[in-house]
Amino acid sequence: MSQLVLQDVERRFDENRGVFGINLKIEDHEFFVILGPSGCGKTTTLRMVAGLEKVDSGKIFLDDQEITDFPPKMRNIAMVFQNYALYPFMTVRKNIQFPLKILKMSKKDMDDKTEEVAGILGIKDLLDQKPGEISGGQRQRVALARALVREPKMFLMDEPLSNLDAKLRTQMRVELKRIQKQFGTTTLYVTHDQVEATTLADRALVMNRGRIEQMGPPMDIYMKPENRFVATFVGDPAMNIVPAHLFEKDGKAKLQIEKMTITLPGLELKQGFSLDVQVGIRPEDVNIEEDGIKAKLTVKQNIGRAEYQYFTLDDGTAFVRQIYSDEQIQEGDSLHIKPNLDKLILFEDNEGKAIYYSGMKNLRQTAMIASVP
Questions:
Q1: Is the pLDDT of residue 371 over 70?
Q2: Which domains does the chain possess?
Q3: CA distance 27 to 167
Q4: What integer pLDDT is reported at residue 41 of this predicted model?
Q5: How far apart are CA 131 and CA 147, in angstroms?
Q6: What are the strands of the beta sheet with 318-323, ordered from one edge?
Q7: What's the rounded Cα separation, in Å, for the pair 275 and 277?
Q8: 43, 190 in Cβ contact below 8 A?
Q9: What φ, ψ does residue 301 adopt, rounded to 5°?
């Protein structure tokens, strides 16, 4: 079993920079991803788990044993770095065998282990070459082999695919998932790339400014973001956020966006309720309908599998729509757009917490909705 637990872990560089109060449990065999923008604290968290960064407060446990103050070599954790960290003067074989030499394994056992792992990763024919003589994707496989050969309790991966081109990144995502499933090693993976997070993770954690914003299965995070930051960070193109007004009229919950007023299904409001909110609309949940919001199409982008349409509303708000069909509308056209009423999310106007998910049985209504008269 290889279970990792972080309890109230903190690393403070100053008042606003660092990692603050991180609590999480990564289960045995789980592929867990920390996702967030640059500078959010995700790599610092990874380095604390590896023992490369000091923990100011809190505790870290691996298999119920506290490792908070253990040096890196005593943690039985393997780390794959963004820049591969291969020794350029060593052959691929010697790079892979380096951690085994530290463990004082016999030459025969080292050779057997190297051949086995290199075969699994498809790099047996590279063993006598040096890192400078092979491609980026091959160097990444060598770095993985060097981690795998130790049979560690856990893998830590710090943006290992960021130096690869788009096609190779896609291939390596498939390889990483296959390898992790084959070896069953608990994996903690750090990235700013949401595609990596959604395709690799069993569960993901979204981090911002050193704190956890949301944690759960990737699709839950995408469909039910808990706040405005998560809603706009997860998803490409980003979720549209527009100002709106929520109010009660004739016993029904109404939402006014610009000059369009719609009835929200499944939401009961007190008589006289009135509240400024922000509404979140995914680009794929926008339709063109006559009773929608007046908008002008300013730019169209065709990316092959889909088309992105960028609109400007009358008040200057930018709005993006994503479609998978060919429509005969042109840049400069004025038309009306309307969100899918089953896919709206309402956020508090100030703090940005989600207060309502349209079309879902488990509606979330915060104290703010309940308390406003």
A1: no
A2: 4-232 (3.40.50.300), 240-371 (2.40.50.140)
A3: 31
A4: 95
A5: 16
A6: 318-323, 307-313, 286-302, 334-339
A7: 6
A8: yes
A9: -130, 120
Residues 139-198 pLDDT 10s: 888 988 898 888 889 999 998 888 778 888 888 888 888 888 888 889 999 999 998 999
- Within 10 angstroms of residue 322's Cβ, the number of other Cβ atoms is 18
- Token reading at 224: 């039910």
**Where in 48-142 does DSSP place strands (E)?**
57-62, 65-66, 77-80
Read off φ and ψ for residue 356, nearest 5 degrees: -160, 130
Q: What is the mean pLDDT of residues 17-31?
A: 95
Q: What pLDDT sits at residue 338?
A: 92
347 vs 5, 12, 279, 373, CA distance in Å?
32, 30, 6, 18
Q: Please tell me the predicted confidence (pLDDT) of residue 314.
A: 86
Give the pLDDT confidence score for residue 366 in this predicted structure: 54
Q: Write down the mean pLDDT value for the chain.
A: 89
Q: Residue 116 is inside which H or E element, if any? A: helix 107-121
The CA distance from 135 to 268, in Å, is: 60
CA 207 to chain centre: 9
Angle 107-121/136-148 helices, nearest 10 degrees? 130
The tens digit of pLDDT for each residue in 204-253 reads 999 999 999 999 999 999 999 999 999 999 998 999 999 999 999 999 99
- Cβ atoms < 10 Å from Cβ of 89: 10
Closest to 243 in 3D by CA, of 281, 207, 273:
281
Torsion angle, alpha carbons of 292, 297, 302, 308, to 10: -40
249: phi then psi, degrees, rounded to nearest 5? -150, 125
